[in-house]
Amino acid sequence: MNVSLMSVVNKWKKEEGLHICYLFNRKKYIESVVSYIISGIRNEEMVVLVENDRNILHIKNELDKQISQAQLVHFHYINNYDFYWSTGDFHTQTILHYFSQIINPLLETRKPIRTWAHVEWGDEKEVNDKIEDYEKIAHTLIKEKEILSVCAYDISKAPSHWQPILANCHSEMIIEDD
Predict the structure, then answer these.
(1) What is the per-residue pLDDT across 63-118, written as a single tens digit (0 to 9) for each?
(2) How far, in Å, CA of 174 to CA of 151, rounded?
(3) In contact, 18 and 148? CB cutoff 8 Å
C-alpha cells in the first residue's frame, strides 16, 4: 500500500507527537517539502526546516510564489550541515541540544510545531553506528514535545540495512515511489 506523506501529515493530532521517516527520490523532493511547509503555515503552525543550501533556494522560490511575506513569520530555516555537523561529527547529544534550543522558544508561542529535517552525511561509516541512537532519542523528544517531524533521507544514499532501523525508530515510514 502506497501511503502519501501528506495523507499521514493530515491525520496528525496536535496533542501528540508524530515522527515520520520519509525515504525520497530526487524527482518529487522539493514539491513534497514545499507542500509540507505551506500546509503548516496555512494551519498557523510554526515550521522549522533543516535543509541544505542547494535545496533551500528552490524551496524559497516556490514559497515566494505561494505565500505572503507576512506568513513567512511562521517559517524558520537552519542549514542541515550546521545542524548535524556543528561539532565536526554526527554527535547525537549535540544535535538534540541544538534542536531543543531551536524548538523551546517556539513552544512558548503555544502554536503547533512541525519540522522537516533533511538528514545528510559525508562518511557513512561514522553515521552508521549512530543513526539508531540518534533517531530513538529524537523520537522520544518529538513525542514529548508533541511535534510533527519528518526525517527525510535520500533513498539512493541511505544504505538498505538502515530501513528496518529507521522503521523501528519512527511512528510512520513512507517510501516515495518514482
Answers:
(1) 999 999 999 999 999 998 888 877 767 777 888 888 899 999 999 999 999 999 99
(2) 10
(3) yes
Compute the distance between CA of residue 7 and CA of residue 108 in angstroms, rounded to an integer.
28
pTM for the model stands at 0.91
Residue-averaged pLDDT of the chain: 90
Which residues fall within 8 angstroms of residue 62, CB to CB, at 6 or more apart?
A: 30, 34
C-alpha cell at 9: 501529515
Q: How far is CA 20 from CA 35, 45, 110, in A?
A: 15, 17, 22
Residue 58 CB contacts under 8 Å (≥ 6 apart), including other chains: 30
Task: Tell me the CB-side half-sphere exposure of residue 115, using CA atoms within 13 A.
Answer: 29
Q: In angstroms, what CA-CA distances link 167 with 11, 143, 151?
A: 19, 16, 11
Helix%, strand%, coil% for the chain, nearest 5: 50, 20, 30
Q: Are 55 and 33 in contact (CB under 8 A)?
A: yes
End-to-end CA distance of the chain: 15
How many residues would you count in the chain? Answer: 178
Backbone phi, psi, residue 176, to 5°: -75, 130
Q: What secondary structure letter does DSSP report for 28?
A: G
Determine how many CB atoms are found less than 10 A away from the CB of residue 63: 20
